[in-house]
From TrEMBL:
GO terms for molecular function: heme binding; metal ion binding; oxygen binding. It comes from the Bacteria. SUPFAM superfamilies: Globin-like. This is Globin. Heme binds at H48.
Length: 158
Protein backbone atom coordinates (compact mmCIF):
# COMPACT_ATOMS: atom_id res chain seq x y z
CA UNK A 1 0.00 0.00 0.00
CA UNK A 2 1.65 3.23 -1.17
CA UNK A 3 2.15 5.80 1.55
CA UNK A 4 1.93 3.27 4.39
CA UNK A 5 4.01 4.59 7.29
CA UNK A 6 6.71 2.46 8.85
CA UNK A 7 5.95 0.88 12.20
CA UNK A 8 8.48 3.33 13.66
CA UNK A 9 6.62 6.34 12.29
CA UNK A 10 3.24 4.90 13.25
CA UNK A 11 4.19 4.44 16.91
CA UNK A 12 5.53 7.99 17.20
CA UNK A 13 9.24 7.64 16.45
CA UNK A 14 12.20 7.79 18.80
CA UNK A 15 10.50 9.89 21.47
CA UNK A 16 7.75 7.28 21.91
CA UNK A 17 10.29 4.45 22.04
CA UNK A 18 12.48 6.25 24.58
CA UNK A 19 9.40 6.85 26.74
CA UNK A 20 8.56 3.14 26.48
CA UNK A 21 12.05 1.82 27.20
CA UNK A 22 12.77 4.30 30.00
CA UNK A 23 9.59 3.34 31.86
CA UNK A 24 10.08 -0.34 31.07
CA UNK A 25 13.61 -0.48 32.50
CA UNK A 26 12.49 1.50 35.55
CA UNK A 27 10.01 -1.34 36.14
CA UNK A 28 12.62 -4.00 35.35
CA UNK A 29 14.78 -2.69 38.20
CA UNK A 30 11.88 -3.37 40.59
CA UNK A 31 10.99 -6.80 39.20
CA UNK A 32 12.22 -9.83 41.14
CA UNK A 33 12.53 -11.99 38.00
CA UNK A 34 14.20 -9.44 35.73
CA UNK A 35 16.23 -7.21 38.03
CA UNK A 36 19.06 -9.77 38.43
CA UNK A 37 19.36 -10.06 34.64
CA UNK A 38 19.77 -6.30 34.24
CA UNK A 39 21.62 -5.56 37.51
CA UNK A 40 24.66 -4.13 35.71
CA UNK A 41 22.76 -2.19 33.06
CA UNK A 42 24.28 1.12 31.95
CA UNK A 43 22.20 4.25 32.50
CA UNK A 44 21.92 4.71 28.72
CA UNK A 45 20.62 1.17 28.13
CA UNK A 46 17.00 2.33 27.56
CA UNK A 47 18.19 4.73 24.83
CA UNK A 48 20.22 2.00 23.11
CA UNK A 49 17.29 -0.41 23.18
CA UNK A 50 14.96 2.30 21.84
CA UNK A 51 17.41 2.90 18.98
CA UNK A 52 17.68 -0.83 18.24
CA UNK A 53 13.93 -1.40 18.22
CA UNK A 54 13.47 1.79 16.21
CA UNK A 55 15.86 0.61 13.53
CA UNK A 56 14.17 -2.80 13.35
CA UNK A 57 10.76 -1.11 12.98
CA UNK A 58 11.86 1.05 10.06
CA UNK A 59 13.49 4.01 11.77
CA UNK A 60 16.96 5.46 11.24
CA UNK A 61 20.13 3.43 11.85
CA UNK A 62 20.90 4.99 15.25
CA UNK A 63 21.80 1.83 17.16
CA UNK A 64 24.89 1.01 15.15
CA UNK A 65 25.28 2.93 11.88
CA UNK A 66 28.19 0.65 10.89
CA UNK A 67 25.69 -2.02 9.88
CA UNK A 68 26.78 -4.58 12.48
CA UNK A 69 23.97 -3.78 14.91
CA UNK A 70 22.38 -7.20 14.95
CA UNK A 71 25.70 -8.94 15.58
CA UNK A 72 26.31 -6.44 18.37
CA UNK A 73 22.90 -7.19 19.92
CA UNK A 74 23.48 -10.94 19.67
CA UNK A 75 26.81 -10.41 21.45
CA UNK A 76 25.05 -8.79 24.40
CA UNK A 77 23.08 -12.00 24.96
CA UNK A 78 25.87 -14.58 24.67
CA UNK A 79 26.31 -16.80 27.74
CA UNK A 80 23.58 -14.98 29.71
CA UNK A 81 21.71 -18.27 30.30
CA UNK A 82 18.28 -16.68 29.85
CA UNK A 83 15.29 -18.90 30.43
CA UNK A 84 11.66 -19.02 29.37
CA UNK A 85 10.38 -17.56 32.66
CA UNK A 86 12.62 -14.51 32.21
CA UNK A 87 11.69 -14.17 28.56
CA UNK A 88 7.99 -14.37 29.31
CA UNK A 89 8.25 -11.87 32.16
CA UNK A 90 10.23 -9.47 29.89
CA UNK A 91 7.59 -9.85 27.18
CA UNK A 92 4.62 -9.37 29.53
CA UNK A 93 6.17 -6.40 31.32
CA UNK A 94 7.06 -4.69 28.06
CA UNK A 95 3.53 -5.07 26.70
CA UNK A 96 2.02 -3.82 29.98
CA UNK A 97 4.36 -0.84 29.88
CA UNK A 98 3.41 -0.18 26.25
CA UNK A 99 -0.23 0.01 27.33
CA UNK A 100 0.57 2.24 30.30
CA UNK A 101 2.58 4.76 28.24
CA UNK A 102 -0.12 4.73 25.54
CA UNK A 103 2.00 3.31 22.75
CA UNK A 104 -0.06 2.85 19.60
CA UNK A 105 -2.59 0.15 20.37
CA UNK A 106 -4.47 -0.41 17.14
CA UNK A 107 -4.73 -4.10 16.18
CA UNK A 108 -2.52 -3.88 13.11
CA UNK A 109 0.35 -2.19 14.91
CA UNK A 110 0.13 -4.37 17.99
CA UNK A 111 0.05 -7.50 15.85
CA UNK A 112 3.31 -6.52 14.17
CA UNK A 113 4.89 -5.26 17.41
CA UNK A 114 3.99 -8.42 19.34
CA UNK A 115 5.27 -10.52 16.46
CA UNK A 116 8.65 -8.82 16.62
CA UNK A 117 8.84 -9.07 20.42
CA UNK A 118 8.01 -12.79 20.31
CA UNK A 119 10.58 -13.47 17.62
CA UNK A 120 13.30 -11.28 19.13
CA UNK A 121 12.87 -12.46 22.72
CA UNK A 122 12.91 -16.12 21.69
CA UNK A 123 16.04 -15.51 19.62
CA UNK A 124 17.66 -13.81 22.64
CA UNK A 125 17.03 -16.93 24.76
CA UNK A 126 18.52 -19.17 22.07
CA UNK A 127 21.58 -16.93 21.68
CA UNK A 128 22.11 -16.76 25.44
CA UNK A 129 22.75 -20.48 25.89
CA UNK A 130 26.25 -21.90 26.49
CA UNK A 131 28.37 -22.52 23.41
CA UNK A 132 26.44 -20.33 20.98
CA UNK A 133 29.04 -18.59 18.81
CA UNK A 134 28.86 -14.94 17.78
CA UNK A 135 28.15 -14.86 14.05
CA UNK A 136 30.54 -12.92 11.86
CA UNK A 137 27.56 -11.22 10.24
CA UNK A 138 23.82 -11.08 10.70
CA UNK A 139 21.62 -8.61 8.89
CA UNK A 140 19.61 -6.20 10.99
CA UNK A 141 16.04 -7.47 11.19
CA UNK A 142 13.53 -5.29 9.35
CA UNK A 143 10.02 -5.67 10.71
CA UNK A 144 7.00 -4.46 8.76
CA UNK A 145 3.24 -4.57 9.05
CA UNK A 146 2.98 -8.25 8.19
CA UNK A 147 -0.26 -10.07 7.48
CA UNK A 148 -2.66 -7.16 8.11
CA UNK A 149 -0.76 -5.19 5.48
CA UNK A 150 -0.71 -1.89 7.33
CA UNK A 151 -2.92 0.30 9.43
CA UNK A 152 -6.59 0.74 8.77
CA UNK A 153 -7.10 4.35 7.76
CA UNK A 154 -10.74 5.33 7.33
CA UNK A 155 -11.45 6.47 3.79
CA UNK A 156 -8.23 4.99 2.40
CA UNK A 157 -9.79 1.72 1.26
CA UNK A 158 -9.91 1.13 -2.38
Amino acid sequence: MAGTPSLYDWLGGRDALVTLTTEFYRRVALDEVLSPVFAHMDADHPDHVADFIGEVLGGPALYDPSGDGHVRMIGHHLNRHLNEAQRRRWFDLLLTTADDVHLADDPEFRSAFVGYLEWGSRLAVINSQPGVPLPSSSPMPKWTWGAPGGPYIAGAEG
